[in-house]
Amino acid sequence: MKIRNYWNLRDFGANLWENAGRPVRVAIVLGSILLVGLLPFMGGSILATPIAAFDAVLVYPVGMFVLMSLGLNIVVGKSGMLDLGYVAFFAIGAYTMAYLGTTTNLNTWEIMPIGIALAMIAGVLLGIPTLRLRGDYLAIVTLGFGEIVRLILLNSTWSKGPNGIANIPMPPDLGPLKFELKNQRVFFWVVMAMILLTIWMIRRLTVRRPGRAWEAIRQDEDAAELMGIHTLKYKIWSFTLGAAVGGAAGVLFASKNLYIAPEMFTLNVSILILACVVFGGIGNIWGVVIGAAILGYLPDRIRFISDARLLAFGLVLVVVMNFRPDGLLPRKKREKAIVKREANA
Amino acid sequence: MFEVLIDQFWSLTLAGISLGFIYVLVSLGYTMVYGVLRMINFANSEIFMWGTFGTIITSRDIFGYTQTSAPATGGKLALVLISQLIMSMAVAGLTAIFVEYVAYRRLRAKGTNRLATLISAIGISIVLSELMRLLTDSRPVGSPRVLEKIILTEVWGANIRLDTIVTIFAAALIYFLLERFVQLSRMGKAIRAVSMNEDAAKLMGVNLNRVITTTFLVGGLATGAAAFFYITVFEYSKFNIGFTMGMAAFTAAVLGGIGNIRGAFYGGLFLGLLEVYASAVLGTQWKAVTVFIVLVLVLLFKPNGLFGEAVQTTRA
User: Which of B99, B22, B36 is nearest to B259 (CA)?
Assistant: First the structure.
């Protein structure tokens, strides 16, 4: 007799999804989008955060973390390259917004493509020389890149050094939706739209040539290359797409925060984002979304242990990794079986 | 631009060598663990940071030195310095073993993916540095001066200070002892066997867990010794000093070829000199940038490092 384990959320969700017809699926998707979209109105409930305003927390860190984790997931989860300098692309996006927003008349939506483009260029420039490396070495080089970007921002005059850039303009209103500092629900909806767009992009790419190439590279790079996949090209693509998402998040962040400084873009952010990806389940979109939402939200929810919250965060990482090394919602079982067989061989 | 470098060439060189020896010892913590586990010991930077506090506590709280008290002399000086060194090494060694037990052991037994292990190591390094941040209220902690920085003599316009000389000779001695330990002792042989071929070593009856714990311990001891010298020269510590040191030491390890003890020696010295020269030419704020650029260049053009295994064939 088959025992159905409803506590296994992933299988439960997958079953529900597999057995549903198209109308039910559309309903599930629209319903979840609506539910998440209503989150900013939940500020009075048990979800409320003690110090920061709830809707602000939903935008940054929660929304931004989800967005960036999805971007990093393309690099780490889909194609298996460890990137510890992801914050660099976030910083490039943010500083593009800050610099152009304060010196020209361009608004946030016009700067967005420029920021994304610059982040992508940086991704290509970093990718071409370094993506030949593998594993830990790639991790260290990208980590170094993240630090170089921060140090350049810290020591350059155009970026106003450690003082940072202030008075960054808000995005212009979108019809009836007004961007306000006091009430950031419109920001949240914009982030949500960007998240949905990213998810859609990843899902489309996954079932096409690039996605399959990434999957092959992740599982065995040598075999992939022997099968005629231009591995460097697809690795750079994955890196660049990840960078684009980071850059977009950066532009929006600068426009929301109105002030940015180099100390906001330290290695800690890269590590946090990576932790979100691994914590939720590397390579699994929904795992990443949930992991990032939890890790972004948790430190603000547990502000009552105020100073020790990063300590608690570190402990959570260690404990979760020790007991659920594949994250909260792991990749499909089949893939796990393959990995296990390889490990035993 | 180069005037400073030319004017003070010999004193810079001396400073570079003493910094280089500190790098050599810290990079042993990376290189040895990497040799055995094929994984970066991500928490080594925090192990170093804990070692510096071990040093400070010994002189400040056990021997009761303050910022204003006179530096020690004679036998007392040797006693304080040696107990500082031992304390620092003990703290760092124990921290390293703790890291191995908490962050690596269980995951290694499960044979899970490397990313999970890396995150777990990152988690433990966050715990270590945050714990110290809470203990010190995020403030930098100054170390009372135990070893007076007497200028012994002057050679080619360079002041030869006592602390520099002590650092260079003592660090070289400790490096030499550790290197001999790995080369000659039974345990050292086992460590080398595991780093060459883990499965074959296991079949030959090597106790893998013990070897790995010992490797962490030896790496921790070296890092702890480096922490002591760091405090002797720079006389201050903070909860976040580990990061820069860790990056530089890792670069040194890669430079010499990671997994290779002798490589760490040359890599550390080279990097120490380079960093000092570069900050004389470009200004100290670009010091870290130089380190990273060197790292990228080395990985691109000489990925084996100067003495190490082929990096590109190392699997992810």
Answer: B36
